[in-house]
Recover the amino acids of this structure.
């Protein structure tokens, strides 16, 4: 009779290693399921106040380069205020910004913002200034609605409000500046207060 072939016996997995793997799987699953809660309420209020200032400065102006510079400057300041508030809120109470929920929020929010930036250049070159308010409101609303699917329930509602204002602005370009005051200003302030009270800042 020939010798039986050697059979390697698998080493048993240590109980603590199996437990660590289970805990890692549970943690990653919870991160994927958790909503992005670092949306800044007080940051939204600050963004709204900046937009109100821009809107009042731009009131009565024609849609020309000075008007555009006012609103673009306000957009930069508001973005900085919102980012700073988001970082502060995340460090204070929320999950890290680059958690699974944060990455999903950013990847959903960013495409419409990039599209809006490119379309702004195209519309200015085409001398379609009066279409800018409606386009900005619509694409910002699209960004918020998309990102809001991974955040708290109020965020998609805010996005829909921007979509409604943007749709109206496209067909009423003469009221574009006023509608941007209502959207980027008042909506940010109202929803910002509610988010700050309900979701911790």
């Amino acid at each position: 009779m020939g010798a039986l072939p050697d059979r390697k016996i698998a080493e048993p997995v240590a109980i603590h290693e199996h437990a660590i793997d289970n805990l890692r799987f549970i943690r990653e699953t919870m991160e994927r399921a958790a909503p992005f809660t670092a949306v800044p309420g007080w940051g939204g209020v600050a963004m709204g106040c900046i937009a109100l200032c821009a809107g009042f400065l731009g009131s009565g102006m024609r849609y020309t380069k000075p008007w555009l510079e006012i609103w673009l400057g306000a957009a930069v300041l508001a973005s900085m205020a919102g980012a700073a508030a988001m970082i502060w809120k995340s460090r204070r109470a929320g999950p890290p910004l680059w958690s699974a929920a944060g990455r999903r929020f950013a990847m959903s929010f960013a495409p419409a913002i990039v599209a809006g930036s490119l379309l702004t250049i195209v519309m200015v070159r085409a001398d379609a200034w009066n279409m800018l308010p409606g386009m900005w409101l619509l694409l910002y609303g699209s960004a918020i609605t998309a990102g809001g699917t991974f955040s708290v329930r109020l965020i998609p509602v805010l996005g829909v409000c921007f979509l409604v204002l943007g749709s109206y602005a496209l067909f009423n370009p003469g009221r574009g500046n006023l509608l941007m005051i209502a959207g980027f200003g008042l909506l940010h302030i109202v929803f910002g207060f509610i988010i700050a009270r309900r979701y911790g800042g």
